[in-house]
Amino acid sequence: MKAQLACLLALTALAPGQVEAQQPDQKRPAPPAPDVPPQQAPDKPRLGVELAAIGPDCRLTFTELDDLLLARHGNSPLGQDTLGALAQLVVVEELAKSEGISASRADLNQRWRTLEEQIISSGTADSLADYLEQQGIKRKTFQRHLRLSVLHERLARRSLGLEPDDPLSGEQQTHWLNGIVDSLEQKKGEYPWSDGTVLTIGPHVISRQTFGEYLRTSLTSEQLREACYELLLVERITARLPDLAPDTFEAAVSAEIARRRKEVEANSNFQGVAYEQLLQAQGLSLATVRRDPAIRAAAMAHLFVDRTHGDAELRAVYEEERNLFDSLHGEGHAISVLVLSAARFANELSPRTFEAAEAELEAMKEQIASPKDFERMVGLHSDEPASRERKGYLGIITRGSRLVPETVRAALWGHIDKGMDSPEGSLLGPLRLQGGVLLLQIGAYRPLPTWEEMRDHIHQELRRRLVSDALPRAAVSTWLDL
Q1: Tens digit of each residue's pLDDT (9 = 90 or more) over 74-88
Q2: Mean pLDDT of the 204-232 span
């Protein structure tokens, strides 16, 4: 089943314009009569038709969204894989048309039933519709995949000289199609395809518009929603800076890129890799990044707070909300954790009860006499992959830290507030949490930050508030919400 589904999903959906052309029964809005006055003729742009998203006093067209998706993802590894799938789609469509091969509704219904039987028998889902919902795949999009899979199979059978009942694997179909595609002369356009041509494959041309529409169907809902929000956010923050000169704005963008470059250089996880190299690995360039709405919105937010809050104003905000900023960014302790998964009752997913996990951790405590011992026990026993990769280290926890549950914060600071002289190295727990039990080791103390450090935190919080006020996320509606 897995191989068949993979083969099926490798053939991607048609671009919206192409689909409409092949569905003559689909109702279209009637064009305005010639004698209608010009100001009454055009319909208002509609969400899900012309508009991808709307918000308070702002709107976003699909063309604007697709331009961003092409810039962000079109040249990335995902985008290039998607382009390859689109090329295969075009070839299948044209070959089927030239050889008179079609797929009837009965064919599609039969293919649906076959896949649904495989889904149900495997225990993956109760129905194919449920499976599609779990995977975030729209039914209409999947039905297009079904049609293309039928065409693909019939073309392969004819080419390989196979009868309808002869066995034909997904691997054979893929190998046949790859051979066809590879035999065609291909010429890629130059990113970001300003001349409108992304790929020429044999006699077929994949335009920038078609690729953009198709790429949109290949990204997650989260990626699409975030792109819509960021594009609208730029519009809303721009309205807060009506006197912003182009040169000032471009300088703010340069400053934002410089800040991000500095963060990359200071991050040991990147092991000295240059900022431009990281961009290149994602199919990006400095030119495309400069136009990205995430960069531009951040640059304007930084500029706005700089204009409205000098050092004296930032100090005033700190004094007024000192408890908030000190709790989030003030004194803290590094902590490390060893986590054992557990549940109220043992089951296949959680082989131990809370009580059994607590007993195991109590026994481990007897074997831990130093931070090195703790790291060793984490490597041997912890069930939490992310913290285990960091040898148990979780981060700096302040009194109001949002990184950990309240149970962990309360245990840490309750222990420290007892007045112990040197809590570093102390073990706390076992602490029972939802889904597991953990043992906590207290690390080094971090004192209150300098004013320069706290100033940066206050500036960041004011930028966050500006963004939230300029465009609340809940105020944005996208075509995905319809």
Answers
A1: 999 999 999 998 999
A2: 94
Number of folded domains that form the chain: 3
Task: Identify the CATH number of the domain in which residue 360 sits.
Answer: 3.10.50.40
Instruction: Indicate if the pLDDT at residue 315 is higher than 60.
Output: yes
Q: Rounded to the nearest 5°, which phi and psi values hold at 27?
A: -75, 135
Which of 112, 72, 384, 121 has the alpha carbon at shortest distance from 230? 72
Are 131 and 205 within one domain?
Answer: yes
The count of other CB atoms within 10 Å of the CB of residue 248 is 11
| Separation between Cα atoms, residue 314 and residue 302, nearest integer Å | 13
Render 265-331 in DSSP notation, one character per residue.
HH-GGGTT--HHHHHHHTT--HHHHHT-HHHHHHHHHHHHHHHH--HHHHHHHHHHTHHHHHHHHSS
Q: Is residue 32 in some structural domain? A: no
Select from 27, 86, 93, 64 the least CA-distant residue to 217.
86
DSSP 123: T
Judgement on whether residues 108 and 10 belong to the same structural domain of the protein: yes
Residue 459 tokens, joined: 């500036």
The number of residues making up the chain comes to: 482
Residue 463: give the domain boundaries. 233-323+455-481
Tell me if 213 sits within 8 A of 17, measured CB to CB: yes
pLDDT (tens digit per residue) in 382-404: 999 988 999 999 999 999 998 89
Instruction: Using alpha carbons, select from 274, 277, 278, 287 the residue that is nearest to residue 191.
Output: 287
**C-alpha dihedral (278, 60, 200, 194), degrees to nearest 10:** -70
The predicted-structure confidence for 220-262, as pLDDT tens digits, reads as follows 889 999 999 999 999 999 999 999 999 999 999 999 999 999 9
